[in-house]
Amino acid sequence: MSLNRIGKYAIVTCFLVLTACSPRPKEIVYGTDGCHFCRMTIVDAQHAAQLVTKKGKAYKFDAIECMINHLKEVDTSEVAVLVCNHYSKPKELIDATQATFLVSESIPSPMGEFLTAFKERKEAENILKDNPGNLYNWQQIVEVLNH
Length: 147
Prior knowledge:
The chain is α+β, with helices and mostly antiparallel strands and 147 residues long. The protein has one domain. It is 31% helix and 24% strand. It contains 4 helices and 7 strands. The strands form 2 sheets. A 4-stranded antiparallel sheet has the order 2-1-3-4. Strand 1 (49-53) and strand 2 form a beta hairpin. The protein starts with a helix and ends with a helix. This is Nitrous oxide reductase accessory protein NosL.
């Protein structure tokens, strides 16, 4: 085998090892998986959330508010990924720290905080027109729920 060919295998092997170890969300099995925080079965594909540690341990939640409450109990420096479901595209996970959140009593969520996430602020603003409430970014919603 040529040295050039060995180099290519080494690069591919390193890439596979590095990507295999990167923390990423696990599949949420709706109707089967339980919420790590409140222990309810996760059934709502529009409001679920997930936290993944730097070591790759995934914690699944039936609602964004459960994930935020769980964050009070953990060392946040160990958190690698925070995702939640995109309201308009059920089961699609989006980066919670980049999402726009709508709190509207017109849109119930599993734990009663009326909290919904959107990938794009513009979409949240459009939904807000028919569902009165307030919009927040990640830092703001964490602060609101921690009071």
